[in-house]
Design a protein that fits this description.
Layout (H helix, E strand, L loop, with lengths): L2 H30 L16 H4 L5 H5 L5 E3 L12 E3 L11 H5 L16 E5 L4 H5 L4 H5 L5 E4 L3 E4 L9 H5 L2 H4 L10 E5 H9 L1
Antiparallel strand pairs: 1-2, 3-6, 4-5
Length: 201
């Protein structure tokens, strides 16, 4: 065997071992890292979603409002490349198109009228909390889930809110706070898991 062939053989062996080690580490990490609380498209609230989703991207591609995005590292290892709701880009009108194109049943029959995908919560940069000068979320909510208390402070009705995200999408607070480098809205949609964790803490 020539020295060149021997060198190629050793290099191939090292690459194979390295690749196997990387895959093992990734698999081990995925089994240890808990899924971050994200909001799934309608019909993806089932506990079996991750085992059924094949990351085909069909739901995101067909979404007419662009609210469906793709999970990144910040969403946790288990959520990589899976569909998540991003209300910075749009809101959900529960058209069911994402459910119709899902090839594996990861997204199942769903009614936005009866089951929420998340719930709205005010944040500390809400303009109305500080100046009483904004009513955008109340005016935009298609489910009348937001009213104004005395002093024009938004109040969210949890029984009516279904997490459509119109309020977060339209909120102007992040624009007014742009000089600070913050990207937070004055009202945000939280996953049901995140809300439950908040209540228990």
């Amino acid at each position: 065997m020539s020295s060149q062939s021997s060198s190629i053989g050793r290099r191939g062996l090292l690459l194979s071992v390295g690749a196997s080690g990387a895959l093992f580490a990734l698999g081990w990490g995925a089994s240890k890292v808990e899924s971050a609380p994200v909001i799934r498209p309608p019909g993806g609230q089932d506990n079996n979603f991750l085992s059924r989703c094949i990351r085909c991207d069909r739901c995101r591609s067909i979404c007419p409002t662009n609210v469906i995005s793709i999970g990144g590292l910040a969403d946790g290892v288990l959520n990589l490349r899976t569909p998540v709701m991003n209300y910075r880009y749009g809101s959900c009108d529960f058209c069911d198109k994402c459910i119709e194109v899902c090839p594996t049943g990861a997204l199942t029959a769903y009614s936005g009228e009866t089951t929420p995908v998340g719930k709205a919560r005010l944040t500390d940069i809400c303009i109305a909390l500080r100046t009483r000068a904004c009513t955008k979320c109340k005016e935009a909510c298609p489910y009348d889930a937001i009213s104004l208390a005395e002093g024009k402070v938004p109040v969210i009705d949890n029984d009516k809110c279904n997490g459509c995200g119109v309020c977060e999408n339209i909120c102007p607070a992040n624009v007014l706070q742009a000089y600070t480098g913050r990207n937070q809205r004055g009202i945000e949609i939280l996953s049901l898991e995140a809300l439950k964790a908040q209540e228990q803490s």
